[in-house]
Amino acid sequence: MTVRYDKLWTLVKHNKMKKKDLAAAAGLSQYTMTKLNQDRIVSMEVMIRLCKVFHCDIGDLMEVIEDD
Fold first, then answer.
1. Measured between alpha carbons, how far is 68 from 28 in angstroms, rounded to an integer?
2. CATH classification at residue 52
């Protein structure tokens, strides 16, 4: 199973934010930002923080792709 955060990066661009602005708004570490950039799984707490920033649901930020 893999995850993709393309929806998150689309929201970031749509809101005219930079990734460092997102990290500050959600209180995310550089390590967590690296995991997001590499489409690696992050904690539910991180996803909830991101949802609060954009006032959305988790499905609006990421997608889960089943491996064959």
1. 32
2. 1.10.260.40
Q: In which domain, by residue range, is 44 found? A: 2-58+60-64
pLDDT at 11: 97
- The three state secondary structure string of 3-36 is EECHHHHHHHHHCCCCHHHHHHHHCCCHHHHHHH
Asked if residues 6 and 63 have their Cβ atoms less than 8 Å apart, the reply is yes
Number of domains forming the structure of the chain: 1
User: Considering the entire predicted model, what is its pTM?
Assistant: 0.91
> pLDDT for 1-48, tens place per residue?
899 999 999 999 999 999 999 999 999 999 999 999 999 999 999 999
Query: Are the CB atoms for 15 and 55 separated by under 8 Å?
Result: no
